[in-house]
Prior knowledge:
Number of domains: 2
Protein name: Probable 2-phosphosulfolactate phosphatase
EC number: 3.1.3.71
Distance between the termini: 23 Å
Order of helices and strands: EEHEHEEHEHEHEHEHHHHEE
Number of strands: 11
Oligomer: single chain
Pfam family, one: 2-ph_phosp
CATH architecture of the largest domain: Alpha-Beta Complex
Family: Belongs to the ComB family.
CATH class of the largest domain: Alpha Beta
Helix content: 40-55%
Cofactor: Mg(2+)
Bound molecules: ligand L3UKIRZJ, magnesium ion
Amino acid sequence: MRLRVDLLPHGTYPDVVLVIDVLRATTTAITYLERGADALLLTATPDVALALRSEGMRQDGARPDGESTPYLLGGERGGLPIPGFDFGNSPVEAAAQNFTGRTVVMNTTNGTVAAHTAAQSGKHVFLAALTNAHAAARRARATATEEIAIVCAGTDERVGLEDVYAAGVLAEYLLAMGESSIDDGARIALTVRRSSGNPLEALGSSVHGARLASLGLGEDVRYAAGLSTSTLVPTLVTGDDVPPGTLKFIAG
Ligand SMILES: O=C(O)[C@H](CS(=O)(=O)O)OP(=O)(O)O
Ligand SMILES: [Mg+2]
């Protein structure tokens, strides 16, 4: 088995891909499914998300529960909610809601883009964060036949300490589960994990963690630092019901 860590999304992925965007997209995605969402649709652009909702309203009309569409929109630009969306990209906000029976359509600056890159070639694509680290590692190990690629989303095409740290946590778990050859990306991630303190210290010291704190979103950083608080692993599925320009993830 090969274990590979890409510090930014690039290249092609022949087998299993774990996409990480700890702050905050994959942490928030896990939370939506934890809070009962039927599915997540990760869109390529905000416009695809807005068009989906308009189309859903046109087709469905009013639903019996008084809601006009099964779609709820979550996402951000510059860390703040996108105009016309229902939610930002906050796991704390998501954890306070009940999404039963709803599909959450997500678009974010980095995480949803990384998922689209991974899905272009990956055979099995999962979303991972610190909050589901152990379950995601187990799932990857059980699924892979040749390679596990951990793909860090980064921020605006720059490497993010929070994602590399989480990749190191996943790599540690994976190496404890069986032998693998590891690339230099995995060595870097393991070194960062071992030298950056506990999860909250690591996330808090990252540029993006500090930026979120300055936006008043420090509670999201604290939430994202919760290690293996969930056993849920968002899993990419395909099928005729997946709208163009989106990736569908369900709870696995
Ligand atoms: O919401 C986030 O934390 C970031 C947004 S940004 O880096 O502040 O623009 O988005 P994500 O896609 O979750 O990295
Ligand atoms: Mg991020």
